[in-house]
Amino acid sequence: MNLENTQVQMRKGVLEFCILHIIARGEVYASDMLDELTAAKIIVVEGTLYPLLTRLKNAGLLEYKWVESKSGPPRKYYKLTDKGSKFLEKLSETWDDLIHSTQMITAKSQL
Fold this sequence. Notes:
Helix content is 66%, strand content 17%. By secondary structure, it is α+β, with helices and mostly antiparallel strands. 8% of the residues are buried.
């Protein structure tokens, strides 16, 4: 089994959750999301991020607006919709449950 592949799959599993959390803090530009994800060692490229953002938008979980930039083309800023906020709330509950369950299992294996 390939360790690196498993690590990548684990990160992909939480990517959508992390992106929704970043956007939940307020309007955000995609490159700022990439910077924050990279700083947190969740490596993602534009070719992964933009399709995911489009999918979340099409699902009604987020929306965007164009903002003129003084130093280049207009920028697309994303924010959660009400539906997206409710979705994130439910995902957060699931995340908390997963953490609890995982800790119960991994704590037993360390005894």
